[in-house]
From TrEMBL:
Biased composition (Polar residues): 1-11, 55-68
PANTHER family: HIGH MOBILITY GROUP PROTEIN DSP1, MITOCHONDRIAL TRANSCRIPTION FACTOR A, ISOFORM B
Stretches the record annotates as Disordered: 1-120
GO molecular function, one term: DNA binding
Protein name per the record: HMG box domain-containing protein
Gene3D superfamilies per the UniProt record, alphabetical: High mobility group box domain
UniProt xrefs under SUPFAM superfamilies: HMG-box
Basic and acidic residues bias locations: 98-111
Domain HMG box stretches: 119-188, 223-295
Keyword line: DNA-binding, Nucleus
Organism whose genome encodes this protein: Heterobasidion irregulare (strain TC 32-1)
Classification via InterPro entries: HMG_box_dom (IPR009071), HMG_box_dom_sf (IPR036910), HMGB (IPR050342)
């Protein structure tokens, strides 16, 4: 055929085939400094044998760097669930307890020392005599006194004194005690409820630690608690000589009188108890209102509360 003759056409075979210009095959890239949005691509070296890391001999060198063993301790549920009694070799992780409670302020924190400074106790008759004895000894002697030896010698001399010789010291001691009582009463009256509360907190902590046996301070300015209905009945009996004769008879002992009064109270009817119960309830309401006024600071410290200022009273 006609087309087969072209296969043996030497002129067409020797003619070079025109190749496309290189600009079409590989277009030139602009420099990086001219194109602000150009990114430089890093050439990655392909592994000629992708299955080499799968079928790799143990003696052949590996292109993959082996990682160093991690020193971090792996998580183990056994560390939390194991107990020392079950496995003595087990590692038990104890969680640190975090105290989320707010720290007590300086006002609420128990003090190591009382902040009250009441007047000092008055000296006794012996203490006054011992003070005078030391002054006389220092005036007549120049040698230094030993307190223990001085107290022993002064004690022997004080024991040999007559009652008439001791009487001046006793009178001085009694007068100083009366002055101290007045100063102490005025000092306790000047205390605020906050001072008494802090002192009672301190004393409670001392009693709990076994360092003191002092009881709490009673607020002298606070309203007094009212009597119960039974104690009002008992007070009524003691104020009336006829009721005393009727209930107690010839009994004079206080304990036995209380037993007789309790028996009389139990034998009374509800109508007979009603006046005492009503009075006790009224005084209880007045006390609660007065107590609230005192704690709120409506009534000044050191003043007595008059129930006439309460609501509902004339």
């Amino acid at each position: 055929p006609s087309w087969a003759s072209q296969l043996w056409n030497t002129g067409a075979a020797s003619r070079p085939v025109a190749s496309p210009p290189p600009s079409l095959l590989h277009p030139p890239h602009p420099p990086l400094f001219e194109d602000a949005y150009a990114t430089q691509r890093q050439r990655t070296r392909r592994n000629p044998n992708p299955l080499a890391h799968v079928f790799q001999s143990s003696s052949a060198p590996s292109g993959i760097q082996s990682r160093a063993p991690s020193l971090a301790r792996t998580y183990s549920r056994r560390a939390e669930s194991a107990d020392l009694d079950d496995d003595p070799n087990a590692t038990v992780r104890r969680k640190r307890k975090v105290d989320l409670s707010p720290e007590p302020s300086d006002h609420d924190r128990p003090r190591s020392k009382s902040h009250l400074k009441p007047p000092k106790l008055a000296p006794s008759a012996w203490q006054l005599y011992f003070t005078d004895w030391i002054q006389r000894h220092q005036a007549t002697n120049t040698r230094k006194l030993n307190v223990a030896q001085a107290a022993k010698e002064a004690g022997v001399e004080y024991a040999q004194l007559s009652n008439a010789e001791k009487e001046p010291y006793k009178r001085r001691s009694q007068a100083m005690k009366e002055i101290r009582e007045r100063e102490y009463s005025a000092y306790m009256t000047s205390l605020t409820p906050d001072d008494i509360k802090r002192e009672n907190t301190f004393r409670a902590a001392q009693r709990k630690a076994g360092k003191s046996r002092k009881g709490n301070i009673k607020d002298p300015n606070a309203p007094k608690k009212p009597l119960s209905a039974y104690f009002m009945f008992l007070q009524r009996i003691r104020s009336d000589p006829e009721l005393v004769k009727d209930v107690f008879g010839d009994e004079t002992e206080t304990t036995k009188q209380s037993v007789l009064a309790a028996g009389k109270w139990r034998s009374m009817t509800d109508d007979e108890r009603k006046p005492f119960l009503a009075q006790a309830e009224q005084e209880k309401l007045e006390y609660e209102a007065a107590r609230k006024m005192y704690e709120d600071g409506t009534v000044g410290y050191g003043t007595s509360i008059s129930f006439s200022v309460l609501p509902g009273n004339p």
